[in-house]
Amino acid sequence: MDIRELDRRALALAGEIVKHVKPDQLELPTPCPDWTLHGLLRHLVSQNQGFAAAARGNGGPLMVWRRGDLGDNPYRAYAASAVAVTTAFADDAVLERRFTLPEVREGIEFPGRVAISFHFVDFVAHAWDVAKTIGVPWEPDAEVVAAGLRVAEKVPDSDRGPGTGFGQRVPVPEGVSPRDHLLALLGRSPEWRPGC
């Protein structure tokens, strides 16, 4: 399946969850230890804007990745940024275009399809983060989970930990569901609860 279709589904998954965020939840802690819910939502908007710029060949300046503004309506800001990145990814030539992603790795360009896979798996993971924070279901479909597993399994341990896009792998017992396996590969404990 085209990675862009999977990415659209990850954006939609996150969007359906972000719709449920209430103003009094924005200061809640999230599974991302450096961010409150407000900070996490701002990160999602910033990532969409940064990847859209990278798809157009303008992803180099770090400020491009830091402009996310939630305004007075986080869902509206998220939805607008999701449209922007989906539009930027729409051209078939984007799959082979070189993306500059300073938030991933300085000084290296990535083929478009690889860059979009990073965006995809980030939104699958952060959809779970938001869902756990506000107590709503996270229900990616089986194709999204399977594709997320393929991407997450390729992330080397050297690219995990503080200051990177992924936490260290979380050990899980044999026989866990594919969804819980994906979360573990993305450095998330399915048992996370606010305050723990």
UniProtKB/TrEMBL annotation:
Family matches, as Pfam families: MDMPI_N
SUPFAM superfamilies: DinB/YfiT-like putative metalloenzymes
Gene3D superfamilies in the record: dinb family like domain (1.20.120.450)
All residue ranges annotated as the Mycothiol-dependent maleylpyruvate isomerase metal-binding domain in the record: 16-131
The protein's name in its UniProt record: TIGR03086 family metal-binding protein
Lineage: Bacteria, Bacillati, Actinomycetota, Actinomycetes, Pseudonocardiales
